[in-house]
Specification:
Layout (H helix, E strand, L loop, with lengths): L1 H24 L7 E11 L1 H7 L3 H21 L6 E6 L2 E7 L9 H17 L9 E13 L10 E8 L2 E8 H10 L7 E3 L1 H11 L6 H5 L15 E8 L8 E7 L18 H8 L5 E2 L2 H8 L3 H17 L17 E8 L6 E6 L10 E2 L3 E2 L6 H13 L14 E7 L2 E11 L12 E7 L16 H11 L5
Parallel strand pairs: 4-5, 4-7, 11-16
Antiparallel strand pairs: 1-3, 1-4, 2-3, 5-6, 7-9, 8-9, 8-10, 11-12, 11-14, 12-13, 12-17, 15-16
Length: 474
């Protein structure tokens, strides 16, 4: 009888704990969903360290540049890449996937970043011809450990809250698969996990598709042309603990398979995969083979899981990652757009945003600077316009006043902006191609030819106001 009473008390206490835990969970962010991961790794790093006295600075520069370039992609898409960790000479990033469109060109963007990082390394004379970069890209559906409800997921997210943000750690079989395929990454090539390659192929073969719509197309992929891209199956390898030791397709992305300069002259001596490709030019298989592989292995459910994970994360986190730490410079972010007149003051410079920009894609604007913590308006404008457009600006030294202001809603906050007027004698414009696709000089009369749906908000009104203030010189 006593024992029974004790058991009842324990059960009541335990149930109270459960109730309390469930009540607390209402206020806990649920990060369950599909995530994409990126790896950049320095090739030949061990040897280089033995011959270079400057290797520490070069490697530190690589990590900084990699982080800056990956974070810059957040400006142009709905992905929210964050640094995961560094492992030796490798740096890793992750991002939850909010919608299917956000990853449609992720392999191409990562490839460009990899090429940029290689170019940066090659600027160091002692590194040229020795150091290079290899990169990998993979995907996983992960369950937030605090929301697994007794089930044992394949992959979990562990969260640690530090001040106002969560530090995330990722564990599981698909995370391991990502690290396994990195073994087959090659310099100047991007290795992609089979599930992500399958998903990217589906997206490319179905233009303007939405996540929910893609679910219904999985069974129809056998009928689709999935070869509209430059992903190729270059080998089949047994990966420890992956696919029950069945041969796993190794997928590479490269931007020009017809080129004669795909591989360096001696790579085939260090890679069995390249040796086979060089020996048999037809050994590369089209990506459509993945459809049959996934069908034979009854793994299409894993693709469904990824798509459902995208929808699930978006539903749980409609504003994206919250508890994200805002950088000091962005706590009171202020944009400084400037309408630039030519030396005769009869034309202004306008630039078109690329179609990859998250806000106002393909629209004409005036360029933009951001106020720096350690600089005034004039210094911030001159620095950013030189950086983004390669132009030198002549700003009023005595009376730099804005002619207008604007407001931009960005994620869960509002950013204020001011518009100034400047002149430039620069004839040769060099655009930051990641932000701008083209530029042109227009007169006030030519403004009539530009439609309102081709420009940012209040474009026409601000141009007219600027021309009222600045009179053309004869």
């Amino acid at each position: 009888m006593v024992g029974s009473i004790c058991m009842v008390k324990q059960d009541v206490f335990y149930n109270k704990k459960i109730i309390k835990k469930n009540e607390n969970r209402k206020n806990i962010v649920n990060y369950t969903g599909s995530y994409v991961f990126i790896s950049f790794d320095i090739v030949n790093s061990t040897y280089f360290k033995t011959i270079s006295k400057n290797w520490i600075e070069i490697f530190k520069s690589f990590f900084t540049e990699a982080e800056n370039k990956v974070k810059a992609e957040n400006e142009n898409s709905e992905l929210s890449f964050k640094l995961w960790k560094t492992l030796g000479d490798e740096i890793l990033f992750y991002s939850p996937i909010m919608n299917i469109e956000s990853i449609s060109n992720i392999h191409k963007k990562v490839f460009i970043i990899m090429k940029d990082l290689i170019t940066i390394l090659e600027k160091e004379n002692e590194a040229k011809g020795i150091l290079s970069i290899k990169s990998g890209l993979w995907i996983a559906y992960l369950t937030d450990d605090q929301f697994k409800d007794g089930k044992e997921p394949k992959n979990i997210i562990l969260k640690e809250k530090i001040r106002n943000e969560y530090k995330l750690e990722f564990l599981g079989s698909d995370i391991d698969t990502g690290f396994r395929i990195l073994k087959y990454a090659q310099q100047n090539k991007l290795v992609i996990c089979a599930k992500l390659a399958y998903l990217l192929s589906m997206i490319e073969s179905n233009d303007n598709i939405k996540s929910k719509e893609l679910l219904g197309l999985i069974e129809d992929t056998l009928k689709k042309d999935l070869n509209k891209n430059d992903m190729k199956i270059v080998s089949y390898e047994q990966l420890k603990g992956v696919w029950n030791n069945k041969y796993y397709p190794i997928v590479w992305y490269f931007d020009n398979w017809s080129s004669e300069d795909i591989f360096q002259y001696d790579e085939k001596y260090n890679s069995d995969i390249i040796k086979r490709i060089e020996k048999n030019k037809d050994s590369k298989e089209e990506i459509s083979k993945l459809v049959k592989i996934f069908d034979n292995l009854n793994k299409k459910g894993e693709i469904e899981e990824l798509i459902n994970g995208i929808n699930e994360y978006s539903k749980n986190n409609p504003k994206g990652i919250i508890h994200a730490k805002i950088e000091d410079e962005k706590l009171s972010e202020l944009h400084l757009a400037t309408i630039c007149f030519n030396d005769k003051s009869d034309k202004i410079l306008i630039v078109r945003r690329t179609d990859l920009r998250k806000y106002y894609p393909n629209r004409w604007e005036f360029g933009c600077a951001k106020l720096k913590l350690d600089k005034n308006f004039r210094e911030s404008i001159k620095e950013d316009y030189q950086k983004e457009l390669s132009i030198d600006l002549d700003l009023d030294e005595n009376n730099l006043l804005p002619i207008s202001s604007y407001e931009l809603k960005k994620e869960n906050r509002f950013i204020q902006g001011l518009i100034f007027i400047a002149k430039t004698n620069t004839k040769e414009i060099k655009l930051n191609e990641k932000k701008y696709s083209e530029f042109k000089w227009i007169s006030l009369k030519e403004l009539e030819n530009i439609k309102k749906n081709e420009v940012v908000d209040d474009f026409h009104k601000n141009v007219e106001k600027a021309f009222e203030i600045v009179k053309p010189t004869n």
